[in-house]
Amino acid sequence: MPDRGQGPSGPRVRVGRPSRRARTLLMTLGVLAVLAMAFVMFAGFWTDWLWYRSVEYSSVFTTTLWTKIGLFAVFGLLMGLAVGFNIWLAYRLRPPLSAMSLEQQSLDRYRMGLAPFKKWVLLAVTALVALIAGASASGQWRTWLMWVNGVKFGQKDPQFGLDVSFYAFDLPWYRFLLSFGFAAAILSLIAAALTHYLYGGLRITSPGARATAAATGHLSVLLGLFVALKAVAYWLDRYGLAVKSSDFKATGNWTGLRYVDANAYLPAKTILFCIAIICALLFFATLWRRTWQLPVIGFGLMVLSAILIGGLYPAIVQKFQVQPNEQAKEAQYIQKNIDATRKAYAIDGTKPENYSGKSTVKAKDKLRADADTAASYRVLDPNIVSPTFQQLEQKRKYYQFPTTLDVDRYNGKDTVVGLRELNIKGIPKRNWINDHFTYTHGYGAIMAAGTQTDANGSPVFTESGLPTTGSLGTYQQRIYYGEKTDQYSIVGGPQKELDYEENGEKTTSYKEKSGVSLSNTFNRAAYAVAFSEPQILYSGAIGEGSRILYNRTPKERVEAVAPWLTIDGDAYPAVVDGRIQWIVDAYTTTNGYPYASRTTLGDTTADSLTVGNQQRTVVAQQNQVNYIRNSVKATVDAYDGTVKLYEWDTQDPVLKTWMKAFPDTVQPKSAIKGDLLAHLRYPQDMFKVQRELLTRYHVTDPAQFYSGSDAWQVPDDPTNKDGNAVPPYYLSMKMPGDTAQRFSLTTTFTPNGRPNLGGFMAVDADATSKEYGRLRLLRVTEDVPGPAQVQSKLNGLPSVAQFVRDMKGADSDIQYGNLLTVPLDGGFLYVEPVYAQGRNALYPLLKKVAVSYVDADQPDGDTTKDTTVFEDNLTKALNAVFGVEAPTTPTTPPGTTQPPGTTQPPASNDAALQQAIADAQKAYDAGEAALQKGDWAAYGKAQEDLQAALQKAAEAGAKLKTPGSGG
How far is CA 109 from CA 112, 113, 119, in A? Predict the structure, then answer.
């Protein structure tokens, strides 16, 4: 014991171990710290499990988790055993005596220092490589599940005669196993070589042999395994040629074999496979020969062969056989690529129909009559009128609408739809309670007729107000799950929620079982850690019945419960059976369809509406794909968050594979009820992918495809100054030969590098139609102006120039709406709404409608004849463009009581209607005057009066029975 007595300079101080109490305290703090760190790591796992259980998709969580754990354990163990065994074996094969040299003397210090810890070092090294390998392997859970559950496609590739499933499901897994084998061989080789060097089996500067016989044999076997794996790689590379991407200057992106692949690379890979097998056997033979002379020669021969046979020979074939007659040599391979690509993207049934662009009807009155029934022209542009919805129907600052609204069908009419969602930034007083307990949900679906506006250019609402009233009747209006709802809320407990404000605050308390219960302390602690919100643990606002809602956007929820799906960028709402349902289109994809050209989803689906708008961006599990199917329709209930997945494409082998991997997660197609089916539509991102492929693959003749003489392009949006691709438009219209309008998704094409119209495509987007999904492609054979030319002609009209000057003089901005294109009697009719927004106005109003009828068969061949007009409303514009008045016989689509796009007050002697119109005009004028003065209170009162007057006008107008009375 240290002496506590006096020292020469005073009392001695003993330095000893801490007291038992201090040691106990330190140990307790250490244990608590470890437990705290463990709980932090566990909290993320536990909250994920609770969430999946709350949405009743716990099988997805457990299947994914156990697959990852299994792959981690198996491949981590295999890698650890491989590296650890080779270190142990190298140690056992060490020479009994080390050569007396400076090199070995310096290594002795390391050997002596390592000796007491060699077992721990071995365990540490093997554990480290096992963890890294296991983590890498767990990321391959999709590859494993697709391999073990793979379903046959029933289609064979044209080169090897193997089912497509081999390339889609099997080959990726084999490639992973091969890469794992390479990693294990290389790491084992490095570990064994270092061990042999440390213990004298390998020498660099010592006299005598540079390696012992044992080390030579050990390392040769490892090198032999590496070369054997290389032989397997050469063999798999043969099949990989069918899905290999390359740059083919004649066609751009290319997938599959070309002439040089089939006639040079393919035999070269077979030869290299044989050479690698022989080389591997030579390495194994060193176990008996104890010399590396033959293996080194064999390895050198393999490298030389790879350069000459695998590189130089194909280059010679390409240079001297293919290039002099490339079109003829590549013809059969181009045909294979065309056939596979068209089938992989479901465009194999699409054949261009020649459409001259010459009007088949010369009588102007007939053209005018046909124009009324050709389409329900949507003059209410969902990409522009969101601010109008915001100002007229926001009602409170803590509500908002999406930037781009949606188009759906109600009562057989195209309708613009937006949900009044919660805007957390608009809460009057921001604090934790208000953000997460009081303001929890949006309220109501707002709808407006897509084909008409009121006297002032504002939408004609068919569902409006707070709570909303109108054509929908009674439905659950609360929106707890939406595109704009990205924060968590805690509901159902002692804290009341604000429902909506009408003559005071109306409160509510959430009664559904959605979300995760916070009734027990453990769950609260887990969420406090997971969300970094300690108040969740101790807040008195949380009690019995409290539930936490999160992961609230529709795309986010569908992606979570089906992590094997690619999600369409545009989720849209529909009122179905008294509930607001978000409808989400989802795709199955693969990157392994032989011969089918690849596309990059992020680029292909981008247009003028997606740039800078993350809510309309595709959520892709795999960005580069060469096979896609809209195989799943999903719904998310806006009130309780219920997610349902429905099988849509019953023939898709990729979906069948995932349904085997995750049984009972996807409901059969027969479970889709009629009300829901009526709101399903053809998805935009699928259509955009198909139209991009059809810019080249509408050509099926190899020679013409090679020349590129008939290549098209998707034109830039002429109404968008940033020059992004024109978006496809939903529109009820007739294609040539149709007798009735179909709800369609449409797009235009222009020839590569040219502005004129090259093609027009529409797909039947109505899920209730027997023709759903049928792509109709028109090839325009004559010189017809394209969208950019029509827009340019419109901008050059004197009436447009005068309108722009007037608006600029009034300090107003001009916004051009969607430029709709409709085939009409052999020609094309372009319709474009034009909006104006004053400096002090809070939203744009429809002021004009531009119409252009383009006909390649103009008198005297004059294709520059001015057929573009600019009028106050669609009826006047159609009258002007054809030079005749609308026929007196009703020609509007069934159920339409007013010509589409009317922007003038309906002519009627009905006193109530006239009075409502007068009141609306008075309120509008009062609002404009208030804006000029900056009197926002007066402006708000005027807007309320305007809305009331418009509602009365709509009610009065609905009672009118005279056809076309709104002219």
Answer: 5, 6, 18
Q: Containing H/E element for 120?
A: helix 118-138
Residue 159 — very low, low, confident or very high, per pLDDT cuts 50/70/90?
very high
| Per-residue pLDDT reduced to its tens digit, 579-616 | 999 999 999 999 999 999 999 998 888 888 877 666 77
Element (H, E) at 446: strand 445-453
Query: What rounded mean pLDDT belongs to the chain?
Result: 85
As a whole number of angstroms, the distance between CA 564 and CA 276 comes to 38
Nearest to 279 by CA among 309, 256, 302: 302
pLDDT band for position 550 (50/70/90)?
very high
Q: How many CB atoms lie within 10 A of CB 677?
A: 16
Ordered by start, the domain boundaries in the chain are: 41-209, 212-344, 347-374+685-894, 375-479+484-552, 553-680, 905-958
- Of 490, 498, 471, 581, the residue nearest 536 (C-alpha): 490
8 A C-beta contact, residue 369 and residue 899:
no
pLDDT of 311 reads 85
Facing residues of 413 across strands? 410
> What whole-number percentage of the chain has pLDDT above 70?
86
- For 26-53, give the secondary structure using H, E and C: HHHHHHHHHHHHHHHHHHHHHHHHHHHH
Residue 864 confidence (pLDDT): 41
Q: How many CA atoms lie within 13 A of 47 on its CB side?
A: 22
Mean pLDDT of 81-108: 77
Percent of the chain's residues with pLDDT above 90: 53
For tokens 């119409």, name the residue.
Answer: 851
Calpha distance 887→583 (Å, rounded): 40
Q: Distance between CA 395 and CA 392 in Å, rounded?
A: 7
Residue 101 burial (C-beta neighbours within 10 Å; 0-12, 13-18, 19+): middle
> Residue 686 in contact with residue 569, Cβ under 8 Å?
no
The answer to whether residue 890 scores a pLDDT higher than 50 is no
Spatial contact of 119 and 49, defined as CB atoms under 8 Å apart: no
Q: Say how many CA atoms lie within 13 Å of 345 toward its Cβ.
A: 30
Strand, helix or coil for residue 715:
coil
Q: What is the 3-state secondary structure (H, E, C) of 469-524?
A: EECCCCCECEECCCCCCCCCEEECCCCCEEEEECCCEEEECCCCCCCEECCCHHHH
d(CA 171, CA 236): 8
Burial of 721 (0-12, 13-18, 19+ CB in 10 A): exposed
- Evaluate whether 834 touches 849 at the Cβ level (below 8 Å): yes
Task: Report the candidate in 813, 853, 819, 854 with the shortest Cα–Cα distance to residue 833.
Answer: 819
Distance (Å, rounded) from C-alpha 863 to C-alpha 827? Answer: 12
The model's pTM is: 0.85
Residue at token pair 């379903």: 151
Q: Look up residue 205 and give its two tokens.
A: 């500067």
